[in-house]
Amino acid sequence: MPLYRDEAVVLRVHKLGEADRIVTLLTRRHGRIRAVGKGVRRTSSRYGARLEPGSHIDVQLHTRTAEPDAGRGHPRSNGLDLVTQVETVENYGAKLSCDYSAWTVAVAICETAERFTAEEGEPALRQYLLLVGALKSLARAEHDPSLILDAFLIRSMSLAGWEPALKECAVCSAPGPHAAFHIVAGGTVCANCRPPGSARPQPESLRLMSALLCSDWPVADAAPMPACREASGLIAAHLQWHLERGIRSLPLVDR
Amino acid sequence: MYEGAVQDLIDELGRLPGVGPKSAQRIAFHILATDTADVERLAAILRRVKADVRFCRICGNVAEADECRICRDPRRDLTVICVVEEPKDVVAIERTREFRGRYHVLGGAISPIDGVGPDDLRVRELLQRLSDGTVTELILATDPNLEGEATATYLARLIKPMGVTVSRLASGLPVGGDLEYADEVTLGRAFSGRRTVD
Fold it and tell me: Are residues A247 and A148 in the same domain?
């Protein structure tokens, strides 16, 4: 009956049966996993409150099979793992639920992190660290929640290899800055390569996107509101083009 | 695989929430072994539920008329509304016999990850009920989980400017439990919501 322990962030919860929940976790060492929390919806549950979306936890899980997987260094599971113990590292979700705007951003961040870790059990340390950093920044109200979301999205795309080209032409790599932006082409495009229907965003919007990509927060915080809105639109469109499906919580973010 | 009607019954029962194929088979054979009169009673009540039960036009609770039993009761306090997520929450609060006002059933909680936003809940109907000035207090009794808390935060932000007192159900330690087993979230809420002892 193998047990393993890891640090994780709760991304999503589903109701299961009378009082159980299926929790989707992004763990530090085991990537995204789904596990069952038995009886966690009962008021008498000792760790139900710790398994809420956005919670950063130290969790012990029990795999259903004892078959070891040498390649990944942890037991391979045939079904859903079982949550046996949970300790809170930081409860970001509970802190954010008092601020509706920040909470909707946290939900969108968690959903995006889930989509970027398509393969269960594949370690995704950089995505995990990015997620923890975004939730921490959101809980501390260090920046505008909308900017934190956009920074998380563009940097997640960068980790996945879909970073939009902002300093050179996405088609011919001619050094920029370029004025046109085309999502299918992969970022800014030069006058020669510009496909029909390319957007012509304000230069401030592109500067903001570059600042979010390299964590230049002084520039990002000083960006004017129209540029923030335009950059958010471009980032969301670029993300959903590459993911090939929408992020359900993005339209419900309270910006 | 069974023949015709038995297999159809198993398939239909298997579509119910929480009923797997094995349970569906067990229930189907229980029905086959039960008296005809009992089965007909069950069939009649299923038909009656679908034909007669609807949602109260005022509060959204389940009702057999246009208005539910609670909204029709003249002894109920018209100045207080308790907002809950589901009709089953109304039953849970009624069991306490502590609340004498009326209810408003939202039909769920805001859950962006499932695509459920404020427009998908009965928020507009709630604002309509508050618009005539009769209601002076609104009690937010959404579930004490993250989605319930966020829904309560959203409603409070929306309704407070209307001059209505908005309160939230207290969270804290379960009666009969040991303090050492309480999680830090619940214990923290119990501390922040502590009251003076008379």
Answer: yes
CATH number of the domain to which B184 belongs: 3.40.1360.10
Q: Report the C-alpha gap between A74 and A5 in whole angstroms.
A: 10
- Any B CB within 8 A of A244 CB: no
Interface test with A, best of B85, B145, B159, B175 (most A CBs within 10 A): B145
pLDDT at position A110: 95
| Whole-angstrom Cα Rg for chain B | 22
Q: What is the CATH number of the domain that holds A14?
A: 2.40.50.140
Confidence of residue B1 (pLDDT cuts 50, 70, 90): confident
Q: How far is B185 from chain A (nearest CA, A)?
A: 6
b/e per residue A244-254 (b: at least 16 CB within 10 A)? eeebbbbebbb
Cα A29 to Cα B167: distance, rounded to the nearest angstrom? 42
Contact B117 A252 (CB under 8 A): yes
Confidence category of residue A72, pLDDT binned at 50, 70, 90: low
CATH of the domain at B9: 1.10.8.420
For residue A78, is it within any domain? Answer: yes
Whether residue B112 and residue A43 make contact (CB cut-off 8 A), yes or no, is no
The whole-model pTM stands at 0.84
Q: How far apart are CA A27 and CA A58, in angstroms?
A: 9
* Separation of alpha carbons A204 and A242, rounded Å: 24
The residue range of the domain holding B172 is 73-196
> Would the CB atoms of B185 and A99 count as touching at under 8 Å?
no
CB contact under 8 A, A103 and B153: yes
ipTM above 0.85, yes or no: no
Total structural domains within chain A = 2
Owning domain of residue A89: 3-96
A212-241 tens-digit pLDDT: 998 899 999 998 999 999 999 999 999 988
Mutate to test the interface with B, among A15, A107, A247 (most CBs of B within 10 A): A107
Evaluate if residue B127 carries a pLDDT over 90: yes
- Could you tell me how far CA A75 lies from the centroid of its own chain? 26
Interface test with B, best of A103, A105, A111 (most B CBs within 10 A): A103
Q: Are residues B103 and B153 in the same domain?
A: yes
B83 and B134 share one domain: yes
Average of per-residue pLDDT across B172-183: 79
Residue B114 has pLDDT above 70, yes or no: yes
- The tally of domains found in chain B comes to 2
Residue A74 has pLDDT above 70, yes or no: no
